[in-house]
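User: Hi! I'm working on a homework problem where we have to compare a predicted structure to a textbook description. Could you give me the structure for the chain below?
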Amino acid sequence: MHTTVQKVTDRIIERSKSHRQRYLQRVEEVKGDSAFRNKLPCSNLAHDLAGCVGTCRASLLDETIPNIGIISAYNDMVSAHQPYGEYPAIIKASVTKAGGNAQFAGGVPAMCDGVTQGEPGMDMSLMSRDVIAMSTVIGLSHNVFDGVILLGICDKILPGLLMGGLQFGHLPMILIPGGPMTSGIANNDKNKVRKAFAKGDIDHDELLASEIKAYHSPGTCTFYGTANSNQLMAEMLGMHLPGSSFVNAGTKLRGALTRSAAEQITSLTHLGSNYTPLAQVISEKAIVNAIIGLMATGGSTNETIHLVAIARAAGIRIDWNDFAELSDVTPLLVRIYPNGSGDINSFQQAGGMALLINELLKGGFIHEDLQTVAGKGFARYLEVPVLENDKVVWKSGPEQTGDQTIISTVTEPFETMGGIKVLSGNLGRAIMKISALADGEKTFVEAPAMVFNSQQELEKAFKADKLNRDMVAVVRFQGPRGNGMPELHKLITYLSITMDRGHTVGLVTDGRLSGASGKVPFAIHCTPEAVTGGLLAKVQDGDIICMDAHNSILQLKVSDQELEQRNPCQYDLDSSRYGLGRQIFAPLRKNLLGAEEGASSIFAYTDES
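Assistant: Happy to help. Predicted structure tokens:
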């Protein structure tokens, strides 16, 4: 193992010891020695049997047959989740064939951040992750399942499923992906059209026609944003079958992988000889592997929040120092948009996960000795799935890249570090992603602040031609307790245009940016946030702000004496807390932890707080 990777792993294990022991103890306490439904009183079990059709009732009355629950984030509106509509029937048939029974346990909500981007609904997006976690728990609360299949992909959905699923860590679980859509218009071309529209050079119909070419069919969006970062993370955690993350939606191989995953989960319950509970799969080493995978590919900054929360749900404590230290030694091996011109399909064609994992193992950057849903040891993930007679078989994966501009090697990486930096200073702590920046100079920005209390204020300033200047845009009151920490992806177009005009531009915010955001140097997830006393609330127009990734600095260059005399801005957040149902989230919003703690309310009243 690389010495830094081992050191960080050991530090996480030590830091987590008491929390992890308590979590594993509770998992041990609820393990069973027979089918869990057998513990129910007769009347309770009869209620479950009442909904059975076909062979379901006979199967559930047989104490030797495992019952698999299905938790799904299916809906027709989220393109990545639309294919899941057909999955339950496929899963039920496959589980039955494998000697088990499957029941649909419940659905969880699934927002599309693309649909809500810049709209009021986005203020509920991050909080929906907690709702998804709690919905997962409700679906499994009947205690009639011996294993679980989780169907979810996108930004808050997959993390929420794992956060909820880990409350049932004694059960084996497997994530089944839906796969990306085929490639449409190139991402760089899409962004050129967006800029043209923002500048008034094209009309609404031309913009819409371009967007439809980009997002054109069921499946995950093809850029390397949070959804595809989630899929990579899931495979690095050992929660997917090897090589299944980026097989296109609607293909025969995709369907065969779904059947194989259903058969696999049936074999992992405590009723058989291959018992593999979720608590064993989500381990400290698996979490480190996930961080390394994200760093090596320039993954979404959102995972610096999501992975913290997932780990916490398993009794594992990680922080941004772990991300930063691992990033410093992890070579950047993948260039796909926004870190390059290719997309997730280009990555798959160049060698995909098997080649990436092969390189990381050769360099000693990831742990091989861990438990996965595919068995013991991460070497299984060097294999790729292929279709033979409508059935999946796994064969040795590629050892050389199919495209050197997409996947490189540990001996000749694109960059010697992964690209996530943690900035610290009097403004607090923040995340900066440098892997998508065009040149090293942009990792240092020093300019006068231009302060906005909402993204709408910045948009209005752009349209009024007030952004033609060197500046660090400060967009505050966007943190978890402020307005729910929405993504501010729409602002990148305006700030990119300002950069194209020759100005020095930076962004500091306590909000989030999409995993697809590049080009503009930013310090995001700034904590403490403005609404809870962070210094962002005292920044004024014209104050000099320094963002220095090389030296990990985020500094407001105003004297302590002057800052002491300033009163923090008192911004009325009512307009972003009411309407479109946002008011119902007040109990969650007021209990959200800070960004570095995972920005979740779930742990606020537990001993994991």
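For your comparison, note the following. The chain has a mean pLDDT of 94. Residues 420-576 form a domain with the Glucose Oxidase; domain 1 fold (CATH 3.50.30.80). Good luck with the assignment!
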